[in-house]
Every structure is written in structure tokens, then in C-alpha cells.
């Protein structure tokens, strides 16, 4: 059986999120391949983790590229597309936030540090157009948006929030705050 690399990385991500100490053999078993096949693609656990991180960043970049961050479209519609694109990624992206061993891999950390530049750039332009206030730095708005998406993932996983309600709540808290 030939397993596509993207599918293998998704299975590895789900497996490691559920069981962080899973061995490469357990990951291979979950993917329906032999340990030898897994080792042929990823000779070490570190190589697999780096590939998983780059895969997660690839999907985020794809969402960003399709969200209109390079446009001057209204904030609500652009951020709505960002949220709609990132929300279903849940575990694939959450892996980046949890896997501390990636902190020592320069290729991963350097790319991660640049990852949100398109979002931040869009937010800065929205601030200069007067669509968003300037009292909060654009990087903070980006982090707040992504942090709220993370909170929504957890609420959906806990059964507290329906997936279909998450985008509305995320944008409401970000754009309107909590005041009446």
C-alpha cells in the first residue's frame, strides 16, 4: 500500500497529539505502513517532526494565500476567510504550538517566525485605512485572532462549541470585544 506523504503526516500528527510518546513503530502502524517504510521517508523522529511542522505551515500559507491578505478588501470578509480556512485545520496546526522539540530546529523556527507576516501586513494596512484602531499593534491583533481560533478548536473538541458557530464567535470577540 502506498501512503501519500501528506496523509502520512496527518496521521502522524493525530497520533502524536493523542499520544505524544508514540514510537515511530506506532505511528507507522497507525498509518498502515511498516516501520521500515516510515524510516525510508523519515530516518529519524526529528526528521518526521520537522516534516510535520513544515506541512502545517504549508497549509497555513495556503489559507493565507487564498484569504485576500494581499488585498484591501474589508476586514470582516478577509478575516472571515482566514478563520474559515484555519479553523478546520485544528490538530495539524495545533501540533506547531505543542511540540517543544521543534524549538531547536532552526529551519522550523525561522519559518514559523515569518509565517504570520502576510496577516500582520494586512492588519497594518487595515489600520492605516482606518478599519481597525491603531492603539493595538497589528501583531497583537494577529496573535489574538489566532489565539481565539485555538480556543475555538479546544471548545469544539470538548463539545462546548459547534463548528458552525465558531467563526461567528471568533470574529465577534475580535472585532467587537465583549462590551454590550
UniProtKB/TrEMBL annotation:
Pfam families xref list: TetR_N
UniProt cross-references to PROSITE patterns, sorted A to Z: HTH_TETR_2
Domain HTH tetR-type: 2-60
Keyword list, A-Z: DNA-binding, Transcription, Transcription regulation
Chain residues forming the annotated DNA-binding region: 23-42
An annotated Gene Ontology molecular function: DNA-binding transcription factor activity
Name of the protein: Bacterial regulatory protein, tetR family
